[in-house]
Amino acid sequence: MFFQSSYPSVLGYYISNWLGIINPNLRIPEFASALIVAYVVQLILRVTDAHEYVDRSTVNRISGAATDFLIVAGMESIKFSVVVKYAVPLTILFVFGFLLNWFWFMRFTTNMARRKFL
User: Fold this and answer.
1) Radius of gyration over alpha carbons of the chain, in Å?
2) Taking the mean position of all CA atoms in its chain, how far away is CA 22?
3) Which has the least CB within 10 A, 66, 97, 111, 116?
4) SS3 sequence, 39-106?
5) Cα within 13 Å of Cα(53), Cβ side
6) Residue range 8-58, pLDDT digits in tens
7) 8 Å CB contact between 34 and 13
């Protein structure tokens, strides 16, 4: 369990730093490197049939907690001055995204409800 949840993060961090040393122009985020390592670990577990011995509910809880930490860290890394500087474009994007989602929701849910229940 510990191998599946911690080592990909640590290896992703070191791989990202190692790639930055080899090629200073190449910068891969630690999260992306850790994700690739986690996929490789998952592939190894599936190929060796070791995934049958991993408790899925515990892995899901660890994944949920890790995602929460990732969101908090991402929110903490946002500089308020950048948000203020780009307030108008961000507002336009938020409004457009809201309207697009509202349109899709209203359009397709009414069609799906009509087909399913009528």
Assistant:
1) 21
2) 26
3) 116
4) HHHHHHHHHCCHHHHCCHHHHHHHHHHHHHHHHHHHHHCCCHHHHHHCHHHHHHHHHHHHHHHHHHHH
5) 9
6) 778 878 888 888 888 888 888 877 888 888 888 888 888 998 878 878 888
7) yes
